[in-house]
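Quick one before lunch.
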Amino acid sequence: MLVTGIEILEKAHKEGYAVGAFNTSNLEITQAIVEAAEETKSPVIIQVSEGGLKYAGIETISAIVRTMAEKASVPIALHLDHGTDFNTVMKCLRNGWTSVMMDASKLPLEENIKVTKTVVQIAHGMGVSVEAEIGKIGGTEDNITVDEREAAMTDPQEALKFAKETGVDYLAIAIGTAHGPYKGEPKLDFDRLKKIKEMLNIPLVLHGASGVPEEAIKKAVSLGINKINIDTDIRQAFARRLRDLLEKDSEVYDPRKILGPCRDAMKEVIKQKMILFGAAGKA
Ligand code: G3H
Ligand code: 13P
Ligand code: ZN
Ligand code: NA
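Model of the 1,3-dihydroxyacetonephosphate complex:
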């Protein structure tokens, strides 16, 4: 069933587990996510980035995800990932999305608060939940110094002020993860996470979770992370299977015979994440 983001995340927050939020931009990735959720009986968040919207078209991807979510036996939310443009957020509300992220984390704190607060007012009026970001979660390709990395992390006092003034439902925090594949091993600031959870007591979101070691994920969940964003690990599973399949079979040409196995490879990765996050069996 299609449900709001907060419906899924409030339960995760109370019971102490995390729900996977997986990025899609086409039919096969969406099928992989929904099948993984059904097979592990997990609640799930299906999210689309602004780039994903541009690739698939908002009406088309909305229809694909909404149709599959409505038919599913597990709770599914359709979420906008990193909405940096206010108008894009509004378009998602118009297209029946059940969760949106207003990401104004690049703006100064007061401006981030102002735009997030407006989105919260409008979205809540329509029964849609809102995620926002405080601190800056960059990419693994960003060449930044240790000091710059530290400065980008979420300040607990600022996070508290932000949550109080905006009324946001769940908050993405910067504690050392980055988008994309890591070169070395990421070092997460668990003390910061613990402090933020104690002060805010709302569902918290971990971005850039592909490539984070299992033990670090488990610790982050135990300290209060309730939504975990995964994109790169799914993309890599897809590409690995595709390369392997085409290498082994130079005759195959039916897209279904190519994309079907790639879809299964993505599904396996997603199922493992759902189990790791503690979401399996929680639907
Ligand atoms: O946060 C980034 C997500 O992985 C989406 O990436 O902008 O390439 O769709 P994208
Ligand atoms: P990864 O690509 O590192 O999994 O990050 C995904 C993400 O944070 C989407 O918002
Ligand atoms: Zn992200
Ligand atoms: Na990552």
